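Hi, here's the filled form for the chain we discussed.

Project: internal
Contact: R.S.
Residues: 677
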Amino acid sequence: MPQLHTRDPYAGWRELTLRGMILGALITVVFTASNVYLGLKVGLTFATSIPAAVISMAVLKFFKGSNILENNMVQTQASAAGTLSTIIFVLPGLLMAGYWNGFPFWQTTLLCVSGGILGVIFTVPLRYAMVVKSSLPYPEGVAAAEILKVGSGEHEDAEQGQSGDSGVREILSGGLLAGLMSFLSGGLRVISDSASYWFKAGNAIFQLPMGFSLALLGAGYLVGLTGGIAILVGIFIAWGGAVPYFSNIIPQPSDMDMTAFAMQLWKEKVRFIGAGTIGIAAVWTLIMLAKPMAEGMRLSFGTFSGSGSASAERTEQDLSPRSMILIVLGMMLLLGFSFYHFIAAAQMSAGIAWTLVVVCTLLTSVIGFLVAAACGYMAGLVGSSASPISGIGIVSIVVISLVLLAVGESSGLFADEGNRQFMLALTLFCGSAVICVASISNDNLQDLKTGYLVKATPRLQQIALIIGCVAGAIVVSPVLELLYEAYGFTGAMPRAGMDASQALAAPQATLMTTITQGIFAHNLQWNYIFTGVGIGVALIIVDFILKKSSGNRLALPVLAVGMGIYLPPSVNMPIVVGAFLAAWLKSRIRTRSGDAESSLKRADRTGTLFAAGLIVGESLIGVAMAFVIAVSVTNGGSDAPLALGLKNWDTAASWLGLAGFLLGMTVFARRILKAAR
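And the returned structure, exactly as it came back:
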């Protein structure tokens, strides 16, 4: 047993255990599947640390010798795996581009493993600068640490009824409520999942949208008021400005109704404006991160050269520099093998093939290293859920596209049009690897912050993160294959005659595929992207003025505005409603509670867990329905095997959807207010 230190009351406690790794793997399956479904449906994923911590505490308390450090390792492993699901922001583009007709298990898994583990290693040298010595808030990391402390009974504010078990009840309650709504809308199809009111002012077309997803209501609660207002601004720019403007100056085709015409304008023009706004927000963030990135690199090189002080304290030990170098080299070789296997299918000359392998491996590693600090910093600033991974993905895809386009043109590769299509697919494959690096970097420092607060061993956490990457990578491909066969993606339907309204939008993958196709075909609509960049620059200035004049109390996150422009309004509106609901509840608790701080803390914990339950419940029903549909189709059945097929039911379905959404919102609010009391 390690020597005990008086400053370290947890020295000698068990942390990374076999039972913890098994439990983490089981949680991984559930949360990775949930995140894949949610990301493909609406372009958002949720942070899995907090619900994983609660589930871990509820399960491990039945085993002898469980403790806060072991629970922390479980949530660390599960959060890494759940985060890896963000590969769906790019990878489905290979089907949309017509290159793949499914998700090859080994190619997908090896790409996730190598990219994810690189993301872990690239952020290890930043831990001291960004976690120990930084004032970044790390909202989800701090919240997870508080829940671990309260649930283990080691927190000075632990109260009766605030144990891990009560947290599981909140997750289950939210999950059952959202799952029922999702089953009624996506399974039986007796209620609608959205409704819109369309009208014209002259030739200009306007839309007042609403969506009825309780999962997105929960996501909005977690995003908060600042993000909700920013998304609302984006909705107004898109549907109160851009779409009416284009519909006013472009004649509506006689064979197209008002709704279809407006949606076409939004998809073909306005979404590119949103992409430009998201892209410039990501670039601006990277610029603002130059100083902490330089500091992290300085400390890292100091450690490698031996000039850094190596601490013997358990709570300050990272993976050794030698281990990190070997792991990086190993993962680069694994990446190279993945790229070689992908490129070999194109049957190019050996010289060109090996050139592309080296270029793609270096692009993934270099871009991944640069975005690692940026993503870690953004997670520390706004949390993993709200961090602009998709914006980083857009910038990465543009850079990779331009580099591979230059390689293809300089080598005469594009004399064969089939090679141009292949290079497009290679860009998306390479971009998927970068997304893996970015997403795990986004999660790693958040988990290390939790570990720092509960006095965990950083080295063991980093090992748990690597285990989580492997476990999550194994799950991603089968879940993607299941969802694709059941629902299809927008622009990629596996069978003729499928219900296009049920297709998963995969919004980021659609956008990144469109951008890549535009760059390789030299017809990308740069004017709309540059318009979005201009809007983003103006919003950055507004955000700067707001922060400076209010002492950082007010802000207008540019990325969230870009999301408001880019995502479907029926997706955005429940998020906005959830954000405003959270603000209203906090205001009500402050005015009615004698001990506002304690009440808000209890309410926030309950709200966070219930919101996580809403997200998990709807997502799991979506995955379960995908399995039912896949079995039905395989046996020659319908794409909607459980649908009741009620006639003339559209109006009633819309009203029932609204009623269900309002009921869910009321239950959500009452649970939070009750917890505050």
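Let me know if anything looks off before we file it.
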